[in-house]
Amino acid sequence: MAVSVRGISHRLGHLSGVLSTVKIFPRTYFTYTNEPAQPIKGKEPKWTTAEDAFQDLKSGDTVFSQGAAATPIDLLKAMTEVGKNKKLENVTVCHMHTEGPATYTDPSCEGIFRSCSFFMGGNVRKAVADGRGDAIPIFLSEIPLLFTKKIVKPDIAVIQVSPPDSHGYCSLGTSVDCVRAGMSHSKIIIAQINPHMPRTFGDGIIHISHIDYAVKVNTPLPCHGGKPPTDVELKIGKNIAENLVEDGATLQMGIGSIPDAVLALLTNHKDLGIHSEMFAGGVIDLVNRGCVTNSKKSIHRGRIVGSFLIGTQELYDFVDNNPFIEMLVVDYVNNTGIIARQPKMTAINSCIEVDLTGQISSDSIGTRMYSGFGGQVDFIRGAAEGLDGKGKPIIALPSSTNKGQSKIVPILKPGAGVVTTRAHAHYVVTEYGIAYLFGKSLRQRAHALINIAHPDHREALEKAAFERLQVMPSP
Fold it and tell me: Does the annotation count 242 as an active-site position?
């Protein structure tokens, strides 16, 4: 419908009169846009000290912290001191696995801070066990939904980024995962700017104008790994590398030394690809040897895809400013539909224990919470649903603990949580072999798992299997 110029002029004049009576506030990060890649004209961060960066922190606030190698340790220490000095109460600090001392979980901070883990690291386990901290059971792929659905509403996001480039863009570097969602839904962003943080390609960019308080630091990132695998780990790695990983496969490796051992034994493979929420330093050698080319991948062909990293300095140097690496948000990387599209998707994860029916516990030891769901179920299911029908969901574990106790058990420890159900379980691998459980009855599963258990425990497991499932002992 046509509108007269006179009518428009009249409405604009009326609007002008209304606006003249309304106080106009300056555009800020929160009221203008929550897209971290979009520059905000005329806005710059306040460069300050770590303690002063928390001048807006108040009782009852929720603070979101970046994790893994990107944990902003200096800022979190300063936050703890500010909370104590201001005598704050009931500040929630939510996060995935973090590195460093997690001083806000110290008993002296009870009532001031309370940790809430989406995936629990060793630095907060005692707080959770003592009732001073919380853990949310959740798939890694669904953590961003906590923010988009406003189940978790952060007041402050605490992150660590690389220095800004010539266009004003910083990089989240080694941890994109749920950080993009967490900071995009926070009212205030506090960042420590660290030249040691690698610049990575993908979803991890944030324009400096979105940072409200900036603190300069110059500290190396926390490092893990680099130790040679044990004999048991090498045997497990050999079973997987020689029997389950095909040329042209796309790999996902969970956290731990067993995935590292698998990588060390793939040097004769060709055209491997990486699509994994995280990957380790063993990938570097495979890239240099030409074993990892990503040339067979259906999407992101020619590039390694990850979401967060923690490893050696060599790994951080490898990903720095390297377009061969794409660090993407975890709700994309761990989406089962995306995973299923990759050729020969081979997911390699570990666990705490497996019962004789194939139930897998990965987040708890009995009633004691140990870690979290992570990306295990995301990738186990994604591999099983592979569109080419060639995916391999693998759970790998030593047959026994360091104390000689069997990790294949008649029943899970009382109170232990089932992360990967018996219906999800396909391949279970120990140093003694491979048990293929898909399509097997409960009794057949028990036989297969007993055959890869430590020999010292097989007799007891056979007895338990007969009592529970009427499984006859092996001849």
Answer: no
**Would you say the pTM of this structure is higher than 0.85?**
yes
pLDDT tens for residues 169-222? 999 999 999 999 999 999 999 999 999 999 999 999 999 999 999 999 999 999
How many angstroms separate the Cα of 443 from the Cα of each of 65, 270, 346, 466?
A: 46, 38, 26, 9
Most distant CA atoms of the chain, gap in Å: 97
Q: What is the pLDDT of residues 229-283, one digit of tens each?
A: 899 999 999 999 999 999 999 999 977 788 889 999 999 999 999 999 998 888 9
* Number of other residues whose CB lies within 10 A of the CB of residue 176: 28
pLDDT of residue 78 exceeding 90: yes
CA-CA-CA-CA dihedral for 49, 54, 55, 61, to nearest 10 = 180
Which residue in 99, 110, 142, 277 is the catalytic one? 277
- Give the number of other Cβ atoms within 10 Å of residue 14's Cβ: 10
C-alpha 405: how far from its chain's center?
29
Query: Residue 87, class by beta-carbon neighbours within 10 Å (0-12 exposed, 13-18 middle, 19+ buried)?
Result: exposed
Report the Cα–Cα distance between both ends of the chain, in Å, rounded. 87
